[in-house]
Amino acid sequence: MLLGALLDAGLPLDDVKEAVGALGIPGVEIAMATEMRCEVRGTRAPVDVSAAPRYSPRQMLDAVAGAAALSAHTRERATAALNALFAAEARVHGDDPDQIHLHELGTADTLVDVVGVVHGLEQLGVERVYAAPLVLGEPGGPRRPGGYSNPAPATLEIIAASGAPVAPERAFHAGVGELTTPTGAALITTLAEEFRQPALALNRIGVGVGGKDPAAFPNVLRLWLGETVGADLRTDPSGEPTPPVARWQDNVVLLETNLDNATGEQLGFAMERLFEAGALDVWHTSIQMKKNRPGVLLSALGPAALESRLAEVFLRDTPTLGVRVRPVGQLRRRPGHRDSGDRSTGRCV
């Protein structure tokens, strides 16, 4: 559901496939499909690992550590989520994390989910994650001989270790069973900075669809993308905004076009549309064009994952006939460097 919500918010499926390919997992098929849950549209991300091998905890961690094509940031956060998962399983089974035998979690889709979600957040430029209290579903005993009760023991161990809040049981959860899996709990508790709703200027919503389709409520996960505003700006003890620590951002592209027939209104409109499409920065530069005519160089920096979307804005909202694109590689920047009044922090979810 987390992966489906990211795809619904604009993450290209090819980016997910490339990230999973970096792990060297054979026999994995990832797709995306639009489905409805109680009249709510969303995106489902089915993962077929029937032809893929099973993995031990050490093999999963080694696969992430050896994926050189992934950024160090993605490898670090994916490793943290996997370690939270394995530590919980070890507590449940009373064993060493390196020695536990994984059942459902030993399939390759655990790696796909964890790496796909962490990589997807980075590609969409998400710098901070907030979450709602976790919805566990219907508490109940095992539904089959040898099975676990709900909430799953590993899910509860992950939540207890992190101190994350849980939502109260609801009557309409009757009969639905599990709504937060151990993998989902590990991802949310390791990625989320706080479990609350911050003050946000929203600009995009992604809806991830679950496999279950209960009649009483839509089984979906909503991803809110936006910028923190007002009181949710980070401050120091004196109450002044605290400059965030600069960091490297990987996989950035620079898009440019020369214009000699665009009005100021068109340029301002295009700038706003580029920011709305996910650009990290946009600017105009005065240039001289052929026959010494004055012109403007319109430039935009953005995540490589959003290259097509940003190029569409250039072609749709300016008079240009083409766009130049070149990779920047890495960009050293403060999170949320775009300043506009009090909307000066980075993209959050």
Task: Give structural attributes.
349 residues; 2 domains; four-stranded antiparallel β-sheet; elongated; Alpha-Beta Plaits; 22% strand; alpha+beta; three-stranded antiparallel β-sheet; disordered C terminus
> Helical content, roughly?
25-40%
- Gap between N and C termini: 15 Å
Number of helices: 9
In round numbers, the mean pLDDT is: 85
Q: What sort of overall outline do the alpha carbons produce when their principal axes are compared?
A: elongated
| Biggest sheet: strand arrangement | 8-9-7-10
Radius of gyration: 22 Å
Pfam families: Ni_insertion
Protein name: Nickel insertion protein
InterPro entries: Ni_insertion
Keywords: Nickel
Overview of this structure, please?
Pfam families: Ni_insertion (PF01969). This is Nickel insertion protein. With 349 residues, the protein is α+β, with helices and mostly antiparallel strands. It is 31% helix and 22% strand. The chain has helices at residues 2-8, 13-21, 57-65, 72-93, 108-123, 153-162, 182-191, 264-276, 307-317; strands at 29-30, 33-37, 40-44, 47-48, 200-209, 220-228, 247-259, 281-288, 294-303, 324-333, 347-348. It has a 4-stranded antiparallel beta sheet, covered by helices on one side. A hairpin with a 2-residue loop joins strand 2 and strand 3 (40-44). Helix 4 (72-93) crosses helix 6 (153-162).
Please outline the helices and strands.
Layout: H1 2-8, H2 13-21, E1 29-30, E2 33-37, E3 40-44, E4 47-48, H3 57-65, H4 72-93, H5 108-123, H6 153-162, H7 182-191, E5 200-209, E6 220-228, E7 247-259, H8 264-276, E8 281-288, E9 294-303, H9 307-317, E10 324-333, E11 347-348
Antiparallel strand pairs: 1-4, 2-3, 5-6, 6-11, 7-9, 7-10, 8-9
Helix pairs in contact: 1-5, 2-5, 3-4, 4-5, 4-6, 4-7, 6-7, 8-9
